Amino acid sequence: MPLGGTFTGTCHADPQQPVPPDESALHRLCNIGYARGVCPRFPAADPGPDAARFTLSSDDGATLRMYYVLERDHQPFAHGRLEFTIREQTFADAPRGDLTARQAAAYAASYLERRSAALEK
Fold first, then answer.
1. Fewer beta carbons within 10 Å, N or C terminal of the chain?
2. Where are the alpha helices (DSSP H) in 1-121?
3. Domains identified in the chain, total number
């Protein structure tokens, strides 16, 4: 999963009318990406990305260093480096766009949860 796990949430494909997605779309489209042309709520003419990918580059115990790539039609659309301070649960410089910032925070939280579970074993 691109965010490290499956998530629920609110569909913002139409920013004027955010709604909770149905369960089928959530797992088949929303959590994977590339819903353009498949999901009836995702506007085909939307000029933005249709998938978000995150990866962790380092964890020194205090800071997570991550990279993100936003994609459109399976091609890079935008990318950047992020630093997430674990204690404050914030980004040094949040990515542009509220949705990308929330997805990056979800990825960081998912990673920290998995790390904590692994340490408990």
1. C
2. 23-25, 98-120
3. 1
Residue type, 49: P
Residue 101's domain comprises 48-120
* CB contact at 8 A, 26 and 76: no
The answer as to whether 2 is a domain residue is no
* Strands annotated E in the chain: 51-59, 63-72, 75-85, 90-91
pTM, rounded to two decimals: 0.83
Q: Kindly report, residue by residue over 61-94, the tens digit of the pLDDT.
A: 999 999 999 999 999 999 999 999 999 999 998 8
Q: Is residue 4 part of a domain?
A: no
Q: Does residue 30 form part of some domain?
A: no
